[in-house]
Amino acid sequence: MLYLIVLLLSFTLGTAGPRIVVEDPWVRDVPPVAKTTAAFMKIRNTGNEEDTLIGVVSDVAEMAEIHETVTDDGIVRMRRIESLSVPPGSTVILKPMGKHIMLMGLKESLKKVGKVRIVLIFRKSGRIVVEAPVRRLE
Ligand SMILES: [Cu+2]
Question: Which of 9, 16, 87, 110 has the most CB atoms around it within 10 Å of its CB?
């Protein structure tokens, strides 16, 4: 009986909940004088529950926000969104002219850094650390 309970418990722990995988992260290279840049990546949820990105932190920036790009009367703007939902079985793609992570108040030259450490904070999965190489926009 105890064996059965342990078996059921481990089965449940092994399969329930969101499972977040971050792929292809990168940060757009900008001239040293620039104070802002953006980070892009694919956020995949291979679990069976929704998770939500609720915050972002990076050592290279004073502030990081989740942004989306919208077109108002033919003018492309970006605006902050509070959170980003990642439904189970889906992949949310952050890309230029789409949703992205805005890194504001850059503290150092990105070229010198080479790779940017970004901490993604999810409601259920907690903190996920990503190393994003600095790349030019192609
Ligand atoms: Cu932005």
Answer: 110
